[in-house]
Amino acid sequence: MDVREILLPGVGLRYEFDNQDGDRIGVIARRTGEFEIVVYAGSDPDEARPVFRLTGDEADTLAQILGAPRIAERFADLTREVPGLNAGQVSVRAGSPFADRPLADTRARTRTGASIVAIVRTEDVIASPSPAEMLRSGDVLVVIGTAEGISGVERIIDGD
Questions:
Q1: Which SUPFAM superfamilies match (predicted)?
Q2: Is the model's pTM score more than 0.90?
Q3: Is the same domain home to 12 and 79?
Q4: Please, which residues have CB within 8 angstroms of residue 139's CB and are 6 or more apart in sequence?
C-alpha cells in the first residue's frame, strides 16, 4: 500500500493512503505529539472530515493493538504451510522479571525451542532482535515455534 507523507508547516506531518472504497485516509501527526485521523471522501478529495483525535499515549496504545496482531497474523500465514509450526504473541507485562533486561537473559530459544522473531514496541517493530535488545514493559514479542514452545516463552516472560 502506498503511504504518502506530506509536510504541514507549523503543524507536523500528514500520512495518507487510499482505501479500497476510494476514500483517502489521513493521519496528522502534530508537533504537539497529538494525532488526528481524517477522511477525504472520494466524492470530494479536498474536504477532510475529522474522525477522532488521540493523545500520544492513546496513539501508542492503538498502534500496539493494531500492530502486534497484524505482525503475528503475517507470521501465522507463513507457518500454515509447515505442520507443527505456529506464530504467537507474548506480552511483557509490568512486573515481568525480564522487563528492563536484555532478551538474552530469557534464554527462551534454548529453553523452549521457540524463537522471538520480532518485538513490537508502541509503533516500532524490531525485527530479528539481537540478544542485547532490552525488553520493556508493554513490549509484545512475536514468537515462532511449536504451541508448547510459545506457551513456554509466555511462562518464562511471566516469571512462572
A1: TrkA C-terminal domain-like (SSF116726)
A2: no
A3: no
A4: 91, 92, 119, 120, 121
